[in-house]
Amino acid sequence: MSKKLLLGLLVAFLAVVVGGIFFLRQYFGLVQGL
User: Considering the entire predicted model, what is its pTM?
Assistant: First the structure.
């Protein structure tokens, strides 16, 4: 694999992780609000 492809996969993985954490925080915040 080329380094550019590997870097792209790493960035995509980090974006998914950060997005998932943000989504879960929002979701649990709503659940606790109820």
Answer: 0.64
Question: How do residues 1-34 score in pLDDT, each as one tens digit?
Answer: 799 999 999 999 999 999 999 999 999 998 887 6
- How far apart are the C-alpha atoms of 14 and 9, rounded to whole Å? 9
* Positive/negative CA dihedral, 16, 21, 26, 32: positive
DSSP 1-34: --HHHHHHHHHHHHHHHHHHHHHHHHHHHHHHH-
